[in-house]
Amino acid sequence: EPEVTQTPSHQVTQMGQEVILRCVPISNHLYFYWYRQILGQKVEFLVSFYNNEISEKSEIFDDQFSVERPDGSNFTLKIRSTKLEDSAMYFCAARMGNTGELFFGEGSRLTVL
Amino acid sequence: AQTVTQSQPEMSVQEAETVTLSCTYDTSESNYYLFWYKQPPSRQMILVIRQEAYKQQNATENRFSVNFQKAAKSFSLKISDSQLGDTAMYFCAFINPYGGATNKLIFGTGTLLAVQP
Fold first, then answer.
1. Domain of A10?
2. Would you state the pLDDT for residue A1?
3. How close is the nearest chain A Cα to the Cα of B77, in Å?
4. pLDDT for A90-109, tens place per residue?
5. CA dist., res. B77 & res. B28, Å (int)
6. Class of domain B3-116 (CATH, top level)
7. Using an 8 Å Cβ cutoff, are A90 and A38 in contact?
8. How many folded domains does chain A comprise?
């Protein structure tokens, strides 16, 4: 069983539409992250989440983005009104305590037309 | 702020040969973790090897080993007996998990490795 499961694997949407990407880590993870990778570019940090609140966010994570973990399992990233430049691979990651290792999901490829 | 630098955007190696990917990092902390992640064309992020900074012994995982030089802040990855399936983007990454919830994994820009038959 994978440590982190992401859905959908690929989503195509029209510019201006709302998108929700979902992540399900196994239950003993405490820290959660979203990263973004535009095709051919580096992996960029978006946001970290701990104890049901955002602990850190990057300058990319503007008002169009939000995260939540409403039921204690699913960890979601919402993009309120997608732009062409939001097209990227989005990775969810989780870690336990102070082990250091992040477990990555398989990624969600977002294509904005 | 911590930074991770990979100075080799692309590398090529012949099948069965050995290749070394370079990584340097900058931090003022003494306890941290370093990782090498592999990203094949599927774009999945796969952990290759990890090194805890307090351990002096270099980590090894089958054909993969690291040369961890803490004083020089260097963390290179050696792939022995390269295989076609090793063709991928390789990312070096740093994290200090001891500071609590705000610590994140910081990635280098990646090295694209091509294994030639």
1. 4-112
2. 67
3. 17
4. 999 998 876 778 899 999 99
5. 22
6. mainly beta
7. no
8. 1
